[in-house]
Design goal:
Elements lengths: L1 H27 L4 H19 L11 H12 L5 H7 L5 H23 L1 H33 L10 H30 L5
Length: 193
């Protein structure tokens, strides 16, 4: 039993090292602007893929849903349908690029309004808050997973391998949620006029 617990703890320890190194990087950096801009691009790609499936035809696109998601989740009104009407050759990659550029331009404008120092502190706080909150939730999910993983043995599966696979999927999902939370928080924060 101890031997199995150590194997499971090794998986948790590797993930802990990654999260703590990210925390240290956030605390060490004077500005997170480049990192957050990259997060914007990744999050926008995921949001757009929800409404515009990759390698799909125009009839399968949900443009009103995309515009609604951008307005509600990020607080930005983009005339995506007008862009498509104006340029029928606009494909999904060009659309992702155009929307991402617009969202990042808005982020830079809001950052300028806040001032460099205030923006850096706010970004750091949002990043650390999201990391800590989701890391705690992830640890609880990992504990829950560990309690029931032995049942996979009845299905002729190796519980240790299944635990590693499930833990990896949970970890990747957690990182995506952290990025999405930070982008959403920064997009919806109220700036004093």
């Amino acid at each position: 039993i101890r031997k199995n617990l150590l194997k499971y703890d090794d998986v948790n320890n590797e993930q802990r090292k990654i999260i703590y190194s990210q925390r240290d990087e956030v605390l060490a950096e004077s500005t997170l602007q480049d990192y957050i801009e990259e997060m914007h691009r990744e999050v926008m790609k995921g949001v757009i893929e929800t409404y515009i499936p990759p390698e799909s035809i125009h009839d399968q696109w949900d443009i009103p849903g995309l515009e609604h998601a951008l307005r509600n989740d990020l607080g930005i009104n983009l005339p995506v349908q007008e862009w498509l009407d104006a340029d029928r050759r606009l494909d999904e990659e060009a659309l992702v690029e155009r929307i991402s550029d617009s969202v990042i331009a808005r982020y830079r404008d809001r950052r300028t309004q806040m001032g460099e120092e205030s923006a850096a502190v706010l970004e750091c706080n949002f990043m650390l808050s999201s990391l800590d909150r989701h890391w705690k939730d992830h640890l609880a999910a990992m504990d829950y997973l560990r309690q029931g993983i032995h049942l996979r043995g009845y299905a002729q599966k190796n519980p240790e391998q299944e635990y590693k696979k499930e833990a990896f999927n949970l970890f990747v999902s957690m990182l995506a949620v952290i990025k999405s939370d930070v982008v959403t928080d920064l997009s919806l924060v109220r700036l004093p006029t």
